Amino acid sequence: QKEVEQNSGPLSVPEGAIASLNCTYSDRGSQSFFWYRQYSGKSPELIMSIYSNGDKEDGRFTAQLNKASQYVSLLIRDSQPSDSATYLCAVIRGGSEKLVFGKGMKLTVNP
Amino acid sequence: DGGITQSPKYLFRKEGQNVTLSCEQNLNHDAMYWYRQDPGQGLRLIYYSQIVNDFQKGDIAEGYSVSREKKESFPLTVTSAQKNPTAFYLCASSPTGAREQYFGPGTRLTVT
B42–A45: do the CB atoms touch at under 8 Å? Predict the structure, then answer.
């Protein structure tokens, strides 16, 4: 079982729709969870961090964490073409400072 | 401007040569990290350092070496022992006590 798993994608949504990106992780000791956005050819950019169960909202982005189900998700409301990118889920391994990344999900927002 | 710089952006080397990738930050972050990214893959941790003059191996350290002589700098050497060195190399740093990591622009290394 992979440590951090994301849906293989790609995901395509129309402009203005809600994009939903999902991630599961295997280490129950994980406490810190992150979403990074990576445009083609560029480096990852941190867009959300979440540490406790529930929802965390920042503008059009909402991160959701369910530790019992070992599941973290990212919702993007009112999707824009500029949101088209690969989204990486990352988790800090329990008891360490090491960040483990999923393979990423490519999102395309169609005008 | 505060930030993380990596140079060069693109690097080409012949097989059998060692090459050093630069990473500098002026954010006063204690922790620094090196990752590599291959097409269609997530990032994999090569080495990390939480304090000057100390560093630890990540998940794929074989064929790589690092140094941390200054807080601001964490260079990565890709040695000839690294079997598949062609990749996108990313340096990151993290503030003291924080878990978030922030990335530099990356260096794309091609070895032929």
Answer: no
Q: Which residues of chain B have pLDDT under 70?
A: 1-2
| Per-position DSSP letters for A39-100, written without gaps between them | -TTS--EEEEEE-SSEEEEETTEEEEEETTTTEEEEEESS--GGG-EEEEEEEEPTTS--EE
B95 close contact with A: CB closer than 8 A:
no
Q: Which residues of B touch A99 (CB under 8 A)?
A: 33, 43, 45, 101
CA of A10 vs chain B CAs: smallest distance (Å): 11
pLDDT score recorded for residue B1 = 58
List residues bridging with B107 in a β-sheet.
B89
Which of A18-22, A57-61, A91-95, B81-85 is predicted with the least confidence, judged by mean pLDDT?
A: A91-95
